Amino acid sequence: MSRNMSMISIAAGAALWGIIGLFVTFLYDYGFTPVQVVAVRVSSAALLLLIYTYFNGKKDLRINWKDSHYFIGTGIISIVFFNLCLFIAMEETSIAVAVTLLYTAPAFVTIFSRFLFGELFTGNKILALAITLIGCSLVVGLIPFSGFDLSLYGVLAGLGSGFFYALYSIFATYALRKYSSVTVTVYTFVFASIAILPFAGLGDIKSTFTLPAVWLNIGGIGLFSTTLAFLLYTKGLEKIESSRASIIATIEPVAATLLSFFVFREILTLWQLTGFILVVTAVILVQKRPRSSFSKRKAS
């Protein structure tokens, strides 16, 4: 896969994450709690990935169990805790504030990548990061001077969601040095499922699992917004720096805003349209690498 195709892969994965609200909304209507939605999301994805991998390359199911710490990182520390923190932030503040705080993730990744991988703070990265944060704030409706009365607990949870979201890129980068993107994604969700299913209380809502619509939405959240999304995103990490990948993935809130407009008929405000343009601009900007950096990499 070329570098450009890797960027497209990351953007496509992020767009699929952006439509998750479609399935989550319906599951909430059927009485699911946030923890239960996380549980069905990761467990359905784990099952789909295991089936896919079994029939398309059993070698990708082989791991050294001494490497479990990679998947504890991607699956439990990142995926489980990022989702839980995000849902807490939504409850304590608002969806707009929670999603904006989630997209502090590129800042965390850029800092981590500097010290862990030696990635430089280039001018493009810093500018794209600043534009992205401003654009995301506008897209989700966090307009300056709007008078939010924020809960400290909610703000900390929101920052936690950004922190744990960022860690997926970091842990996956290490895991990809030994395993394929398919292997990393499969065991991320296997480990996440093992961690959360015992505490989800799915038995309390067992009657809802007799409804075809529930299974349709579980399939949607498991296949499109999780399995395909993470396969595409993790595949892209093979050729793209984790800090750049994290910024490209901020196309997710743009996708979520477009979904709300076309599916739920929510009108885009001028602020949201401005944010949309800023995020797209940042995605284009982050693709440009300094000439000297490129030459140095090519020579090495």
TrEMBL record:
Residues 7-140, 153-286 form the EamA domain. It is found in: Cell membrane. Its main location: membrane. The keyword Endoplasmic reticulum does not apply. It is a multi-pass membrane protein. Pfam families: EamA (PF00892). Keywords: Cell membrane, Membrane, Transmembrane, Transmembrane helix. It comes from the Bacteria. SUPFAM superfamilies: Multidrug resistance efflux transporter EmrE (SSF103481). Belongs to the EamA transporter family. This is Threonine/homoserine efflux transporter RhtA. The lineage of its organism: Bacteria, Bacillati, Bacillota, Bacilli, Bacillales.
